[in-house]
Amino acid sequence: MALKIVKGSIDRMFDKNLQDLVRGIRNHKEDEAKYISTCIDEIKQELKQDNIAVKANAVCKLTYLQMLGYDVSWAAFNIVEVMSSSKFTYKRIGYLAASQCFHESTDVIMLTTNQIRKDLSSPNQYDTGVALTGLSCFVTPDLARDLANDIMTLMSHTKPYIRKKAVLIMYKVFLKYPESLRPAFPRLKEKLEDPDPGVQSAAVNVICELARRNPKNYLSLAPLFFKLMTSSTNNWVLIKIIKLFGALTPLEPRLGKKLIEPLTNLIHSTSAMSLLYECVNTVIAVLISLSSGMPNHSASIQLCVQKLRILIEDSDQNCEPSVNACMKYLGLLAMSKILKTHPKSVQSHKDLILQCLDDKDESIRLRALDLLYGMVSKKNLMEIVKKLMLHVDKAEGTTYRDELLTKIIDICSQSNYQYITNFEWYISILVELTRLEGTRHGHLIASQMLDVAIRVKAIRVFAVAQMATLLDNAHLLTGNVQRKGICEVLYAAAWICGEFSEHLDNPTQTLEAMLRPKVATLPGHIQAVYVQNAAKLFATVLKSQEGNTDSTAAQETSQLMIDRLPLFVQSANLEVQERASCILQLVKYIQKLQQKDVEIAEEVIALFAGELNPVAPKAQKKVPVPEGLDLDAWINEPPSESESEDEQPRAIFAKEEPKHSRPRHTEVDEKELAKRREARKQEQANNPFYIKSSPSSQKVYQEAPGVEHIPVVQIDLSVPLKVPVFCPTGLPMSDQYVKLEEERRQKDRADKKKKEKKKRKEKRSGRGKRHDSGPESEEDITPAHMVDIVTEEMPENALPSDDDDKDPNDPHKALDIDLDKPLADSEKLPVRSHRAAEVLKSPAQDGDAESAASQEPKKKSSKEKREKKKDKDRDRKKSKEDKKKKKKHKHEEKGEDLLGGQAEEPVVQSEATSEVAAPPTSTTAEVSDLDFWLSNAPVPSNTQEAATVVAAAEAAPTSEVASGTAPDSEPDEPKDTETEETKSSKHKKKKQKKEKEEKEKKKKKKHHHHHHHSDGGGEESVQNGTVEEEEPLPPMSNYCLLAENSYIKMMMEDADKVNDIQGNLQDGSQVVVSVIFENKCDSFLKSMEFNVLDSLNSKLQRPEGSGPHDGLTVPFQLPPGVSNEARFVFTMQSIITPQKLKGTLTFIVKNEDSSTHEKLDFKLHFTCTSYLISTPCYSDAFAKLLESGDLKCSSVKLEGVVMPFHHLLARICFRHHFSVVERIDSCASMYSRSIQDHHVCLLVKTSGQTVSIDAKCDEPTLLGNVLDEIKQTFSQC
Amino acid sequence: MIKAILIFNNHGKPRLIRFYQYFAEDMQQQIIRETFHLVSKRDDNVCNFLEGGSLIGGSDYKLIYRHYATLYFVFCVDSSESELGILDLIQVFVETLDKCFENVCELDLIFHMDKVHYILQEVVMGGMVLETNMNEIVAQVEVQNRMEKSESHMERMLLRRHLEPLSPHSHELG
To answer: Distances from the Cα of B74 to the Cαs of A243, A342, A395, B48, B125, in angstroms?
Structure first.
């Protein structure tokens, strides 16, 4: 043995290590591949050895070779061997290799399950860490399922290093095994408030990633995130949260309203560009989600745009130039988002954006282009396009030019050519674009030409002329090979010339151009169009020539066709060939007739009669299913499916009824049909949105009475109808149009002015300058043509279909899971377990699960299948046998399975999951929490108002008792965030809001009741003392007056919000106190400073660097009548006795002319209650706690308490932060925990007016004080 | 999510590749080539974002990169990541490397690819950002290095104990 080790180590000295390998490769530059192949042979030898160190070294080298592109999957098994080494060094190498080259179809992954599980539970946190890291890269659905529970346990590991990794990897687990999401979610949510910032950040990361794909399921977390956003200082976390809010706001506009203010503050305060940028982005998202045109948000938009402008134009001298470029890029990106909803605010920065088009950075230019798209108007379209055309010329031979080209077309064609006033100009732009060398977008240009020519009737004359010239000069387009893409244009040209041939000046010439031999070199589909349209042209030519007396011309044309067509008949392209031979025969026949002097032009034209209308792209999809057609109904009776059918009693004696059982609307008599048709037509006629589909649609459009007011301008004679395509010198044609257009507009304006003058003359009185036509506005620009854009055809009764374009293969679809629903037993994560018998015997002791085998899951899945099958069978039976009326409840069904199923089969262990899966959450409570949080409640600035808020909030603790999750966060949520949210809301609005809120509250209550009743769970109603109540609880407030003078009033909320609970005993525990400041005078209050005289036990937390007696500046100022809330953190050493602290508030009262210093003294009273956290507790755990004997006993009797028992309980719950463990009649047990982990248990009994409370606690002083406080609470009422 | 992290030099030679989504080896090489092609032709003073290559990602993905002396650090990320945030993260990563290697240069990455991976593992895990605090990252890396050292030390001790009977010195004693 010893010798072996020594030998192995000596061998190793001669092995190459990674560095040697790298050096070797660098020294063999010429024959690298050969060298590496010898190295791989060496590695193979090394892997055969027993020594794990040698193996690890080999695997390490393989990882390097993998990076160079070598497939190393053949060594997968060796990698697993190295992974399972007990030494961290080798384990790490193994996991690294695995993470680099394992993937879902690596079969040895199956072997790793146990090894990984072992590593996950290793006492060394770095073994666990390495395993988690590796697993995150190669987790498979099987691994995810088998290990989900182990990883979930790690989420509560003592080491934050492991916690954060476990939290992060959960996302991967969810992706691979979506069933784990619901059971794991409560714990994940808990981690959002983990004391370690890294863990918190990981949890935020995971939830953001989840929520991004299915935001609606995460709306209920909004309050929690909001709190994090206002409290966190970690920019990374803030960015994630703010991004998440950006995804949530479209679903909940009320959320957006809440966000605006804190986000604006962040924008003003942060120095981190990344954070600033994300804030701006989310503000934009919020503004988009809010109904546009809210006047009070224009400021926010201005702020955003202004900040973005700074990003775009400023370049920070201290930054690298590339970072400045990044800012510019992002600025433009965000601008484009604003543009969608608030084009006006962006349009004013047109200069800046046009400037960016000249940037040397392509990414920036592309972004600027995107922006231009939204900035065009009728007024500036020509100008912008002109500028773009200049760039097109500059950007020769780049993909950027293609991008420019598509952008130009996009810009012009957007929203049905809305901004084009002169289509001649547009056609000439398109023609100019055909000159581009090497563009791939010939097809795009072609389709634009077709579209415009078809849909804008007035332009056809001009378009046809242009296209004819294009055809004539086709050789320029097809000249060189590089221009392949652009010849697509000829497709359009040929079709337009053929279809609208009646507009051609010289059809014979065009016909000749279309039949040139050179055409045969074009792609087949273009040739086909040429041939077909040559025939159309031929028909037109024939018509014109037949009118003449000279018949030879017509015959010559026929001859031309007969001469040229055979070229196409020989074409290799089937379509061309077929069309050509068909047309050739036709022409030959025509020629015969011509020789007999028969007039046939009319008949030939009839071949191509009729107009083609464009069809909307989605027309086919929108054909409605006709009335009475059920696509799911069987056409024939379905064939008998299974033997169960046979069980049906056959009618042997009685004849079966003829099958009229399901009368399908087969015969509806003609009358009925006619009636329906009539009704439908009537409806369509009345529906203004219905697009009439008859071929006469345009006519209808033109003749519609509403159209007359559309300004129709006679075609301006100053516009030449024919401009040569290729201007020899001077301006390109489109520029001439720009000039002409300007002139035209000026003329228009002049005309208008004249008219106005006339008007004014008529109206001598002239009540001021109403029509001062200064700068030209949008509406003033009249289109040069009557822009009669033919609408696309749609089928009758087109359905407004909601296009669901979601990718069905998206893995995140599986994660679209409702997280608020209570967790069913069947959903709990599979836990490894011994055989069922054992489980049943000792459900509590699962601690020895360490060594348990893991074959379970497979069996389980097969069992699941079996179960499903059984379910199905049962369902079928049920439907057959009508006797079984009742549908069984889910868990009843489960019980049946357990009994009826195979007893030896391992069952999903439900007990162990009590720790694993958090108990169900109550949906209604959560939803209403969110609603409540979102409703704009006023700041509770006096007791009355506070009461309403608090009363509503009170619903939370009680429902929480039932749900038993999220111990301390929820009940505080509504109060905290809500008060914070309305920081500066004015008092005036409050009254109305209050009423509204009360209504809402009532509604909620009803809802609450309903929920529980329908549940019908007797257990819950016993547990929760407040569920069965008949009358609403009286409102309770936990705001108390702190101090008041003529200037200011201070209210203090119970110091019940406690941070940092977990084992921070040395540093003492922290208590957060919310104080509401209300300005009672007419002056402005500023420079408020809050100071407290620290005691030995309790200290006010001051920012670093300030002395122990310095005051804290209150972070806001108070205008008259406004109240706002500030929070102060105190550190406590001991919490067993109540504390009183003296403090002063100093502030400056500022009037218009004077300002005075004032101060206000106050006393802060920390009760022992304020150190308690309402914590849910199960009755068994509670019983154990009482039996343990660690607790000291004490009791108190209250006399003369006149209130229903549930009120009493609610009051203790609310005032003293207890939760009800169990309630039986007039007796209840309650539990709470202090921030330093003292248990406090109460047994409350009532008889008549006497209430006796027996209490136990491990700290008698604390208990005494708490009981005193409870006593006091009840003595007050 | 981060889809891939690539480090290559000015000639396109990979120094570290880390894909968080499976691609076969030849595809990985193709992606490196394409990315290098996209990134290398850009000036140093243009912006550090690129709308993704055709091979990796698609429209939702962006390349975010930084160029340090002879090395390009390229992160391929989707829209859930903040562009400027990732830019900062690259900086954090490079500074961490600088601390761990003491004036890091390309050679360190060439000869210690494994160590660079271990450092990266403390920053990004499974495509998600694990830690952004440099001190924390360095601390964790160092603890693990110490563990490795102590393990190899133990091994050497073990080896020596086995070797001792063979040494002439022990013969004398015997």
So the answer is: 22, 35, 28, 9, 16
DSSP-derived letter for residue A1091 is E
Nearest Cβ partner for B84 among A164, A273, A361: A273
| A1225 burial level (CB within 10 Å; 0-12, 13-18, 19+) | exposed
Cα A141 from Cα A742, distance rounded (Å): 67
Taking contacts as CB-CB distances below 8 angstroms, the residues of chain B near A6 are 159, 162-163
Q: What is the tens place of the pLDDT at every residue in A466-524?
A: 899 888 887 777 665 555 677 888 889 999 998 888 888 888 888 888 888 888 888 88
Nearest CB neighbour to B48, from listed A70, A103, A322: A322
Tell me the C-alpha distance between B1 and B128, whole Å.
6
The DSSP bridge partners found for residue A1220 are: A1230
B57: phi then psi, degrees, rounded to nearest 5? 80, -105
Cβ atoms of A530 and A519 closer than 8 Å = yes
| Bridge partners, residue A1211, by sequence | none
For A245-265, the pLDDT digits (tens) are: 888 888 887 888 888 888 888
Q: What is the ipTM of this complex?
A: 0.93
Confidence (pLDDT) at A1025: 38
Strands in A756-914 per DSSP E = none
Which of A231, A222, A307, A207 lies closest to A259 in space, CA to CA?
A222
**Of B110, B98, B139, B109, the residue nearest B122 (C-alpha):** B139
Contacts of A498 (CB under 8 A, 6+ apart): A529, A532, A533, A534, A535, A536, A537
3-state DSSP percent of chain B in helix, strand and coil, to 5: 50, 20, 30
pLDDT digits (tens, 9 = 90+) for A1085-1103: 878 888 888 777 777 877 7
- The helix/strand count (H/E) of chain B reads as 6, 7
Is the CB of B111 less than 8 angstroms away from the CB of A18?
Answer: yes
Q: Which of A505, A394, A496 lies closest to A447, judged by CA?
A: A496
**Which of chain A's residues have a Cβ under 8 Å away from the Cβ of B69?**
none
Q: Which residues contact A330 (CB under 8 A, 6 or more apart)?
A: A277, A311, B49, B83, B84
pTM value > 0.80: no
Tokens of A448: 């634009």
Side-chain half-sphere of A1036: how many Cα atoms within 13 Å?
23
C-alpha–C-alpha distance, residues A1159 and A577, integer Å? 100
Distance in Å, alpha carbon of B97 to nearest chain A alpha carbon = 18
Radius of gyration over every alpha carbon of chain A, rounded to an integer in angstroms: 41
Is A970 buried (19+), middle (13-18) or exposed (0-12) by CB count in 10 A?
Answer: buried
Region at A415 (left for phi over 0; alpha for psi -120 to 50; beta for the rest): left
Mean pLDDT, residues A637-651? 54
Residues of chain B found within 8 Å of residue A68, distances taken between Cβ atoms: 14
Structure tokens at A122: 């290793």
Point out the residue among A6, A168, A212 whose CB comes nearest to the CB of B163.
A6
Average pLDDT for A1173-1184 = 77
The pLDDT of residue A1006 is 46
Q: Within B5-103, where are the H helices? A: 25-40, 83-101
Strands (E), A707-770: none
Per-residue pLDDT, averaged over A323-351, amounts to 81
Write out the H or E segment, with its range, that includes residue A531. Answer: helix A524-547
For the stretch A74-126, pLDDT in tens is 999 999 999 999 999 999 999 999 999 998 888 888 889 999 999 999 999 99
Tokens of A1232: 């709470």
| Contact state of A18 with B113 under an 8 Å Cβ cutoff | yes
Q: How far apart are CA A857 and CA A143, in angstroms?
A: 10
